[in-house]
Design goal:
Blueprint (H helix, E strand, L loop, with lengths): L8 E4 L12 H10 L4 H16 L5 H8 L9 H10 L5 H14 L2 E6 L3 H10 L8 E4 H4 L6 H11 L6 E5 L2 H9 L3 E4 L3 H10 L11
Parallel strand pairs: 1-2, 1-4, 2-3, 4-5
Amino acid sequence: MVNKNPITTLFLDIGGVLLSDGWDHYARQDAAKEFKLNYDEMEERHRLNFETYELGQMTLATYLERVVFYQKRDFSLDDFKTFMFQQSLPHPEMISLFIHLKKKYGLKVGVISNEARELNEYRIKNFKLNEFVDFFVSSSFVNLRKPDVAIFSLAIDIAQINPSESIYIDNQPLFVEIGRGFGMKGISHIDYKSTVEKLKEFGLNLTQTTHG
């Protein structure tokens, strides 16, 4: 049944929805192999620094100095940063979906994302996310981080809407549950096809020329 409460705003995660994850354990495993690092040691250092880094309270250079370059390496900081950034890949069908829905229904599109500043800025610019996203509530920009409900509250304040007018889409079910608890409608993103079907339940339909 179509929900008759009109949707005015989509809130999206970046990693796992619009793009691949930026710097997850798979990427770190690949980095350890590529640069011949001790993965377990790097991972422990990552764990101790990552939340501060993602909250925007540590630069990428400082993070890498603590996690990788705490001893002399035969590769440069720039080499490693380039590898990090190259791990980001787009999900073109998802980007196209939200561009289409924004245009068709006149929606606001916002991002609620846990991402460190330099990586977030690279991903926004490189994949032209700012061409269809109206505002970015990124952890490193606002010094708040999911699962803190304050980041959802801030997103609602910025959008100036009632939470019930919005849908939050994330590949992490816990974060979707938190958004629902705050009054947002929620979609746990698994793949393009299932998300398209769930959007239909909220009255957001693709035209016949677009297929899942």
